[in-house]
Structure formats: C-alpha cells, structure tokens
C-alpha cells in the first residue's frame, strides 16, 4: 500500500469547504426514496437519477467525493461515460459502499450486525481498478430497552476494523461509519453515552488491528435527541454535545470527521454542522458532511422523476451543497435559504 496515496486521498476528502455526497442507497433503500415521488425503481430510472447527481454542473466546488453503490459504479452517464470516470474528470473522487447490509444479530433481539467481509479483498481490488479512492462500511447501533449490548458494539467495531485494514491494504481510504440511530425516544444524554461507548470501542478495535488512524475517515452520527423524545435538544446543545463527545473519544491524528444526516431535515443538518464550526474553530480535525438524505431530499422532490425538472433538481442539490460547504467553516446563515 502507498501511504502517500492514502494520505492524499484522506486529506482531499475533507479539503476546506468540501464534503461528501452519499448516493450509495441499496436497491431496497432507493426504492423507498423513489416511492416518495411515485417513481418506479427500475435500473434505468436509478441510472437517470444518479446521472443528474453525478453530472451536476458546479458540484465540484463543494463536493470532494461521492459514495456509490455497486450497481451505480458499473453504470454510465447518458452519453456513455462510466460514472467513475465522469466523477474523476470533474475532480470528484469516486467512493464505494462495500458492506452488504445490516442483518439481525444472532441471539440479540432488536440489534444488527453488518455483513460483507467475505470476499472483500477481491471486491476492493476490482473497485480500485474501476477508480474507487475510498470506501464506506456502515455499522448500525440501535438504542432501546437494555440495548445496545456490549456484544453488539464489539462485534460491529471488530468488523469495521477488519474492513478498514483490508481497505488500507488495497490503497483505498476506509470511511468507518458507526451510526447510532436517532429514531427512538431516548434523550440526548443517552445518545451521548451510546455514541461515546461506540467511538471508544471503535478506536480501540482499529488500534488493536493496526489500522492506520492517519489514513482513516470517521463518518458518525451527531449527538442528538431521539426523534420520539418529548424534549428535543436545540441546535447549540447538539453542536456542543457532539463536539464534546468527539474531543473525548476521537484521536487527534485522524484526518477528518464527516457526519451522516440520519433523518434530520436538510436545513437542520446544515445548522448543526454550522454551529459546531462556529463555536469550535480550532479542533484537531475538520468537521464536514457526508449526507445522503439531507443533500438529496430537496433535489429528489424538485425532480419528481421528470426530465423537464432536471435543471431545477440540480439547482436544489447545488444550493444544499453550497450551504453545507459554508457550514464547514461556520459561514452559513439561515437567511441563505430564503434567498435561494
Ligand atoms: P443519511 O445522511 O441519509 O443518513 O445517509 C448517509 C449515509 O451514507 C448513511 O450510511
């Protein structure tokens, strides 16, 4: 493996004012998204949608990389350019989701374990030959009665470390994503506790498997109230608790941290990221974004599956990308939403 290549990729992923656009929904998940606009999920329709995201003029100013799904990395733009090449030609790095999904964790009701290690070395070699510069693996940690269990956290971080080692061996930067879900009725304090347990277990597993932290990107949830909780923490509390948890549990040598949106509205996800960067200009790592829904939702709604709405959809995506880019340096302002 080339350490210099990994270092350059990791740095570029979180370059100043840039973040990652996650468009790696699995086939069942993209169907759910298309259902919201009454659009059929055929292979061609999925290709057409990803085409508009990938070829969005101006996107490269705010987006350093896009995470693709296995089907997507094998598809091409309407003029026949493979998607990976179309990204590279714009100076955007192709990334690839390599886990094969979160499955029920044996003997642990309500908990998940992410699969996908079998054959991963060969799959990474192929993705690398197609142009992938980084990869993603998402572990899911659920908050509920007596969960998460220590066993669930340990099994998931062990798999994340094995995946990360294989990525680095292949010259691909691992984006390690332990997602503490925000769907339950838990308080922000409980989210803090579980996120802390998860992150501290993750970095011990990475270290014990000799994964180079300097060549790894963390993609994590924010510390936030569960969606069903009757008391919702405000923007500043989310920003403060998230940063406090990261400062305590994430090594300074990590090149960057990006957030998932996890079901937050597009504008709230931007406001949270902005508040973190306004209050903490001197953190050891850049704090940026790797949103799926919070970048795509306004775009998907503007498109509605209609060719005639393509420009409006791309404009909506560019607007969200720009707002989040500004949030990376604390320069976003909610007034920018009405001016759009
Ligand atoms: P959301 O931002 O929609 O949570 O998706 C990000 C992602 O890639 C989850 O794995």
Write a brief structural summary.
The chain has 340 residues and is α/β, with parallel strands linked by helices.
Q: What this model shows, in words?
A:
- With 340 residues, the chain is of the alpha/beta class.
- It has one domain (3-338): Aldolase class I (TIM Barrel, Alpha-Beta Barrel), CATH 3.20.20.
- It has helices at 3-13, 27-35, 43-54, 70-73, 83-90, 120-130, 150-169, 188-208, 235-249, 266-279, 293-303, 310-327, 335-339; strands spanning 19-22, 63-68, 93-97, 102-104, 112-114, 134-141, 173-180, 217-220, 256-259, 287-291.
- The strands form 2 sheets. Strands 1-2-3-6-7-8-9-10 form an 8-stranded parallel β-barrel, surrounded by 7 helices.
- α7 crosses α8 (188-208) and α9 (235-249) crosses α10 (266-279).
- It is globular, with a radius of gyration of 19 Å.
- 1,3-dihydroxyacetonephosphate binds at residues 22, 138, 177, 260-262, 291-294.
């Amino acid at each position: 493996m080339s350490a210099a290549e990994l270092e350059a990729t990791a740095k570029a992923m979180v370059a100043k004012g840039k973040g990652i656009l996650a468009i790696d929904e699995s086939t069942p998940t993209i169907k759910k998204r298309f259902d919201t606009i009454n659009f059929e999920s055929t292979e061609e329709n999925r290709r057409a949608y990803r085409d508009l995201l990938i070829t969005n003029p101006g996107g490269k100013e705010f987006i350093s990389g896009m995470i693709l799904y296995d089907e997507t990395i094998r598809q091409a733009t309407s003029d026949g350019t493979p998607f990976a090449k179309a990204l590279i030609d714009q100076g955007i790095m192709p990334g690839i989701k390599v886990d094969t999904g979160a499955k029920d964790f044996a003997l642990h009701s309500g908990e998940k374990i992410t699969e996908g290690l079998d054959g991963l070395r060969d799959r990474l070699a192929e993705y690398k030959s197609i142009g992938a510069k980084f990869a993603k693996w998402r572990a899911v940690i659920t908050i509920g009665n007596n969960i998460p269990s220590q066993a669930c956290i340990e099994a998931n971080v062990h798999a994340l470390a094995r995946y990360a080692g294989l990525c680095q061996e292949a010259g691909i930067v691992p984006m390690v994503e332990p997602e503490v879900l925000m769907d339950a009725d838990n308080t922000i304090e409980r989210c803090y506790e579980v996120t802390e347990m998860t992150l501290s277990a993750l970095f011990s597993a990475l270290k014990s498997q000799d994964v180079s932290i300097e060549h790894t990107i963390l993609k994590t949830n924010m510390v936030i109230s569960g969606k069903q909780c009757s008391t919702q923490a405000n923007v500043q509390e989310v920003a403060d608790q998230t940063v406090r948890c990261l400062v305590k549990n994430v090594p300074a040598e990590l090149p960057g941290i990006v957030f998932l949106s996890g079901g937050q509205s597009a504008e709230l996800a931007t406001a949270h990221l902005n508040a973190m960067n306004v209050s903490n200009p001197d953190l050891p790592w850049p704090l940026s974004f790797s949103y799926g829904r919070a970048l795509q939702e306004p775009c998907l709604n503007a498109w509605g599956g209609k060719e005639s709405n393509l420009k409006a959809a791309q404009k909506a995506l560019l607007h969200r990308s720009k707002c989040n880019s500004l949030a990376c340096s604390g320069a976003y302002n909610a007034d920018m939403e009405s001016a759009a």
